[in-house]
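Thread amino acids onto this structure.
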């Protein structure tokens, strides 16, 4: 059994701020924990716009605070995500986040993120390396 707290992660290597300045991710479980997924607390800032496309990962996002407009860029559908809502990117869906307030969510990635990943020009994280 492993116990870990977000308190221990703040300001550490597991506390990642996206280069675009639109989000922060505290990564409490990573690939080297060896359980097949990673678990993050993500904050996305109000008034920002972030387009993402996880070509190599699945992500589940469970909102715990705030409100965010979510657009599925593949279908044109627009959703309003509030606490208790979850969206699952089960088709590697290209999507855009436009938070109306500070938006806080618990995110799960499969395959797991390894540590310091940030988005490339397409909004993707790199695929896991063969030896991961
Ligand atoms: C909602 C979302 O995907 N935001 C980008 C950060 C990502 N959730 C992460 O924690 O790495």
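Threaded sequence (132 positions):
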């Amino acid at each position: 059994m492993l116990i870990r707290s977000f308190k221990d992660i703040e300001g550490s290597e597991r506390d990642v701020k996206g280069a675009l300045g639109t989000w922060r991710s505290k990564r409490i479980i990573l690939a080297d924990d060896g359980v097949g997924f990673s678990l993050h607390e993500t904050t996305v800032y109000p008034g920002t716009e972030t387009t993402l496309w996880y070509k190599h990962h699945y992500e589940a996002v469970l909102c715990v605070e705030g409100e965010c407009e979510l657009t599925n860029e593949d279908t044109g559908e627009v959703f309003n995500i509030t606490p208790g809502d979850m969206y699952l990117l089960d088709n590697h869906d290209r999507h855009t986040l436009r938070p109306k307030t500070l938006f806080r969510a618990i995110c799960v990635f499969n395959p797991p993120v390894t540590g310091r990943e940030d988005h490339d020009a397409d909004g993707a994280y790199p695929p896991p390396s063969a030896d991961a």
